[in-house]
Amino acid sequence: MTHDDATAARRPPGPALPVVGGPPAERADAAQNRRRILAAAAAIVAERGPDALSMDEVARAAGVGVGTVYRRFGDRAALAYAVIDDREVRFQAAFLTGPPPLGPGAGAAERIRAFLHALVDRTEDQLGLLLVAEMDSADARFAEGSYELYRQHLALLIGRIRPEADVRWLADALLAPLAANLYGYQRRTGGMSVARVKAGYDALLAGLTAHGGPAAP
């Protein structure tokens, strides 16, 4: 099994985000309601911003009962993640199977750098929705399945550079600056540019790789 096959195989299923591909099979009427709800939610976010996203507003715009929205998505955080889903599926496909350096074929250090830079761009593009999704629940970021996929992906790559290290702790440490509330604070209050955030990651990675032994096969 390759590194990437192992990464995908060990990822726990998330409530809204598959590793790559569409949602599980569902009845035609349920699928139609899901599309209507997501289209309505995306339109509200596009027109009025993420703060306007509410279960009641989405139900009215989609022409369904609010109970249908709650049964399908559970809460506002899960709905926000579902709106994020299309970009997330493409991002996962890029780092699991896409071209190097983000995808397979590059060295571990190059792949970590490409992954983190791409994740900065994704966080920047969808910051408002991520703030909604992560702030509605203290555990939302970790309960959603994509976080564990990121963590395992980074841990496996770090292990190739620093096999003696606590790779899971280091993976969490690298992901921590991209929590939506911290990233939003740095960008909006601290005035940090995207380039500065990426440069900070480059400095961290320089320290991580400076004392590493030979890369594991």
UniProtKB/TrEMBL annotation:
The keyword Magnesium does not apply. Residues 54-73 bind DNA. Residues 31-91 form the HTH tetR-type domain. Keywords: DNA-binding. Pfam families: TetR_N (PF00440). Residues 1-26 are annotated as: Disordered. InterPro entries: Homeodomain-like_sf (IPR009057), HTH-type_TetR-like_transc_reg (IPR050109), HTH_TetR (IPR001647), Tet_transcr_reg_TetR-rel_C_sf (IPR036271). The keyword DNA-binding applies. This is HTH tetR-type domain-containing protein.
